[in-house]
Amino acid sequence: MSAAPKTRPKYYDLNLAHLPPPGLVSILHRISGAALFFPLLPIALYILHVTLGSQEGYDRWAALFHRPGVKLIVILAAWGYAHHFFAGLRYLLLDLHIGIEKVPARTSAVIVLVLGVVSALFVAWYMWSIQ
Amino acid sequence: MKRYTKHPVGAHYGTRQWLLQRLTAVVMAGYTLFIVLALVMHRPLNYPAWKSIFSEMWFQVGTMLFVMALLYHAWVGMRDILMDYLRDTTVRLTAQFAVAFVLLFYLVWTAAILWGR
Questions:
Q1: Distance (Å, rounded) from C-alpha B32 to C-alpha B72?
Q2: Is the CB of residue B27 less than 8 Å from the CB of residue A88?
């Protein structure tokens, strides 16, 4: 009686721009979380290790942070952390049944996306201000 | 109308992990605010200031607690991701083992950075 299962067409819409804001927040929360686990955390630990280790190590990294490419990576990493942070706060509120309706959930998703970018801009300002 | 009561099966560790992932998130969020505040207050940053932040006992303990919370939080999160995308049990369990090993490595490394010299 058991026939071979029908092969169904598969279609993955990988274009994130098609997602509504809550969906975008969700997938970016997942991607940023994975990126924080690897490679961002070991990189951060390595920098902490070297910069706390000696004045020379600190100076070496202080010089590296002057490079635009390194600044860009730090800003991207900060954006990933901030997005994960604010998206996580939003999920905590949703878990408490706060803002769970469609319209407020969409609004809060947009706020999370904006706050992530604002935090990245703040880190950019900080890096240029300490020179 | 017949009503069904769902009988939950399993060891219930899913609920516990779900809750602990959120509790660890709150711990890490608190630490995040502290370190942002510390960095802003010590601006412009230099080696003695950077060193003094991390030589404070409470900050060392806070950093260690942060990484311990992160260990559990990231374990639950990475396990969720691996369960979603890796269907083959052998591959998934190998990946989970690698994640657990890496997380323990981070924990020990953090302790070494904080108190290793």
A1: 17
A2: no
- Cβ atoms of residues A22 and A105 within 8 Å: yes
Which residues of chain B have a CB within 8 Å of the CB of A41?
70, 106
Q: Where are the domains of chain B?
A: 14-115
Within 8 A of A45 by CB-CB distance, chain B residues are: 106, 109-110, 113
Q: pTM of the entire structure?
A: 0.90
Q: Per-block average pLDDT, block size 10, for chain A (131 residues)?
A: 74 81 96 98 97 96 94 97 98 96 96 98 89 66
Residue B55 CB neighbour total at 10 angstroms: 11
Find out if CATH 2.102.10.10 is the number for domain A21-129.
no
ipTM over 0.85: yes
Q: Which CATH number fits domain B14-115: 3.40.190.150, 1.20.1300.10, 2.40.110.10, 1.10.10.10?
A: 1.20.1300.10
